[in-house]
């Protein structure tokens, strides 16, 4: 083994733990983003609140309200999260960091929108008023789905924050297939000259 090879070996060995940490971070972040986006899409079709007329002589059927009625942006933000996962996997450099920022913002937006929709009785009552008898009081009962969406938003925002901080150390999709040293290869005559000198041209 030559002295140059001896110097290179520790650097390669030292880089392996960092590469493994980067791969682990990327896997956890992508899993969190995909899971949060899927939960947002799932919650978007569920009943978030049920409105009932109070004090009417004739009982009126309750009115179920979904996220589409109270917070239409929830499903859209879920799609943004899934698209962001694909972007984090495929993009490189500053573009990947930009995608990470968008993921962070979409998570924060999801948490805020879902939290407001899950606590505003007046907004739910207005939405249900057209389906209930006029001139009556409206009672609103919220389900747990708004808070499920809030948690999904917080997880998404946290994953985006980690991606902003650490995505610069992640390998890009297909990077393992890139040619080493920027794709440069020794010219054939240089390889023959190295063989004549008794050297291995592949080192």
UniProtKB/TrEMBL annotation:
Transmembrane helix found in the keyword field: yes
Keywords: Membrane, Transmembrane, Transmembrane helix
TM helices/strands, residue ranges: 28-50, 70-91, 98-118, 138-164
Presence of the UniProt keyword Transmembrane helix in the record: yes
Region (Disordered): 1-23, 180-203
InterPro entries, per the entry: Trp_biosyn_TM_oprn/chp
Record-given protein name: Trp biosynthesis-associated membrane protein
């Amino acid at each position: 083994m030559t002295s140059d090879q001896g110097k290179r070996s520790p650097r390669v060995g030292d880089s392996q733990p960092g590469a493994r940490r980067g791969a682990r971070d990327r896997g956890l972040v992508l899993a969190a983003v995909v899971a949060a986006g899927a939960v947002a899409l799932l919650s978007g079709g569920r009943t978030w609140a049920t409105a009932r007329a109070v004090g009417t002589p004739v009982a009126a059927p309750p009115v179920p309200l979904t996220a589409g009625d109270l917070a239409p942006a929830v499903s859209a933000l879920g799609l943004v999260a899934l698209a962001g996962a694909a972007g984090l996997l495929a993009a490189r450099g500053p573009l990947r960091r930009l995608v990470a920022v968008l993921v962070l913002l979409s998570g924060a937006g999801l948490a805020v929108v879902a939290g407001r929709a899950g606590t505003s009785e007046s907004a739910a009552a207005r939405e249900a008023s057209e389906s209930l008898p006029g001139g009556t009081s409206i009672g609103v009962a919220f389900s747990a789905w708004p808070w499920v969406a809030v948690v999904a938003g917080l997880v998404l925002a946290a994953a985006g924050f980690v991606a902003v901080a650490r995505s610069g150390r992640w390998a890009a999709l297909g990077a393992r297939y890139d040619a080493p040293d920027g794709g440069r290869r020794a010219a054939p005559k240089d390889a023959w000259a190295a063989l004549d000198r008794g050297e291995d041209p592949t080192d």
